[in-house]
Design goal:
The structure is a homodimer. The first copy, chain A, contains twelve helices and ten strands. By secondary structure, the first copy, chain A, is of the alpha+beta class. In chain A, the strands form three sheets. The first copy, chain A, has a five-stranded antiparallel β-sheet with strand order 7-3-10-9-8, with helices on both faces. In chain A, strands 4-5-6 form a three-stranded antiparallel β-sheet. In chain A, helix 6 runs antiparallel to helix 12. Chain A is elongated and about 90 Å long. The interface between A and B is medium-sized, with 30 and 31 residues. The structure holds a DNA duplex.
DNA sequence: ATTAGCACTCAAGCAAGATGAGTGCTAACC
DNA sequence: GGTTAGCACTCATCTTGCTTGAGTGCTAAT
């Protein structure tokens, strides 16, 4: 009962959606009658629309208003009807490639460029370093009872962690510890550092075993602690451009969500484990993984910069967002990101 | 013509302000007549209010509405009439002291606590490290042609900078460089590292002089680059609680300002150079240093954590914000911050 | 100097049309 | 049978006029 949408119904539905995307107003039969090349009178369109309503693709906000697409219609549109328009997106590339070393700056920039280019709000999450290898480790005595641990992971992600110690360590001890830890841990993935290895290291460190313990904690914390889920947002104010989102309660909620980035983290990581598809996911309305966004649509893309270094980009806008353009922008942006970074 | 506000006028003005702060509605003569202990009829109040209007302290939003205070009245209020109520602020202290080592986390927390506690939006700028001393410097070879420079400044602010080199440096060279730089630079303030010293160091480094140059650049960049002006915001959505700010255009502008943190930087640093006063500044309406905030009031406080380590906290709300409470909260928060960190 | 009283103003709320976009249905048409 | 013209109906939105009530300013009396 749902697959049978004949060609004409599809055309009409498509017209309704496109029209609504542009205007944001309910669209009526007369408009469609003129808008399409079907040369049908408004009455015929009305009959068809009536059918489409029954099938759950469009609804009237109130009797005798035009129809607006439902989530289901958007879903159909995104899955089957969308033809990408790859215009003017090329310019994005130029904006990105400049300071290629500082990862965080680049990502902030990505968020910004996408926000201004699409006129929606964007969220970029920094790469998850899960599964990545330890590249370098350095302990330094900063003063009598503070040690600075610098941890560098593949992809040049750097973490600092301060460790308090009670005893003052000599230079030789520091040197020994550094050599010990580097020789044993460098090149290992996090999963490969197991408990056995840790206890072995502690033994070798002798009386300074507890420091090794602290260092290991620091490594663990630095790498998989919540802090590593750096998130950059941009264009939050864009939501004011869409009346259906900018009534006070909703706007407030959305802005709040943007500040409380933890909810966004969920959104970002949700589908990170999914493989297979092109990496672009579209969530429409209630499909969105975050409650506050049930009146929005969210388009997410996952980028991969190397062994297990995966982050994601999300664009949040009204349900009637310009899916074509967003998906296009997102795709070029991702490619560009991967191109710039993959050489590492 | 302006100093002469007799005692009664002051009392009435005070009553008007307090009442307006609470309700947000224009306040009329009858209300005041009951609200104060002056035992005057509404008619008398009317006469006095008429005078006050002429003197520019209150205005009517339209004929036959009550009066609301002008910027000038707020200014008078803040300068002379405010008596601090230091209740319930104490609880703030508890919320703050927990993870005392990670400066950025603490500041984020400060922003958050203040925002939830006052119901206004807050901005906290991380300390300017200008004038601070270099505590520790470490160069490490991360791979063939990348060197990681870790720079620790007094107050345990840590910066990482990647340096690309063309030649691969030997372990001994690295060690030498480290010793050279640390012995000469540690303990110095930025201003004390002058050009003469730099060329001297370069000479001593011999063929690796250019690396020294890069390191110095990194130090300079890391410490006084714009990046060091880390800014934390919280409670942006609080502005939706005040109708006079939450109409779409204004809200959008404010949110935008919050995202474009550079404007806030200006606000934060503006009065950093001023000395003398308690460190708390109140900007009312047009006095605010940022255009987008001309309908708000901004209360800023400067905290000082040691030699020249100064940051600032700002609270942004409607003109009718509860100045007493805000100033109180801000003051305890600052004291607490300084107490926790000054022992370093 | 203070107050009571009264006329006046004006935002805001409400009810009663007027408007118009859009629908559903029926009967006629090809 | 599919298509269309025509018409009655619905309902959000706009307009208009009316009422209400808070609040003022002024004047005359205390």
């Amino acid at each position: 009962m749902q697959a049978e949408l004949d060609e004409r119904k599809k055309k009409i539905l498509h017209a309704v959606i496109r029209n609504y995307l542009e205007t944001g107003e309910p669209v009526g039969s007369r408009t469609i009658s003129k808008y399409t090349d079907l040369n049908l009178s408004s009455a015929t369109i009305r009959n068809e629309m009536s059918d489409l309503e029954e099938l759950g693709y469009i609804v009237q906000p109130h009797t005798s208003a035009g129809r607006i697409p439902t989530d289901r219609a958007y879903r159909l549109y995104v899955d089957n009807m969308m033809q990408e328009k790859d215009k003017e997106i090329e310019e994005l590339k130029g904006l990105l490639v400049q300071t290629e070393d500082k990862m965080d700056k680049v990502l902030k920039n990505v968020a910004k460029v996408l926000a201004t280019n699409t006129n929606y709000a964007t969220v970029v999450s920094a790469p998850q370093i899960r599964g990545n290898r330890l590249k370098f480790l350095q302990l330094s005595r900063v003063d009598e009872n503070q040690i600075l641990a610098v941890i560098v992971v593949e992809g040049n992600v750097i973490r600092n962690e301060m460790i308090h110690v009670n005893e003052t360590l000599s230079d030789e001890t520091m040197l020994k510890l550094n050599i010990l830890l580097n020789t044993h841990l460098t090149g290992l993935a996090l999963e490969e550092i197991n408990l056995g290895m840790i206890t072995a290291l502690k033994e070798q460190a002798g009386i300074h075993g507890d420091i090794v313990g602290e260092v290991m904690d620091a490594i663990a914390q630095a790498i998989k602690g919540e802090e590593d889920l750096e998130i950059y947002t941009s264009g939050a104010n864009n939501i004011f451009k869409y009346p259906e989102l900018s009534d006070n309660r909703k706007a407030s909620e959305l802005i709040n969500t943007f500040e409380e980035k933890k909810a966004l983290a969920k959104l970002a990581t949700e589908k990170l484990s999914d493989e297979g598809n092109t990496g672009i996911q579209v969530y429409i309305g209630e499909e969105a993984p975050v409650q506050a966004m049930k009146d929005c649509s969210v388009v997410t893309a996952t980028y991969e910069l190397g062994e297990g270094m995966r982050g994601s980009i999300a664009i949040i806008g009204p349900k009637r967002m310009d899916y074509d353009k967003v998906v296009g922008s997102l795709r070029t942006m991702m490619n560009e990101l991967e191109r710039v970074y993959k050489k590492d």
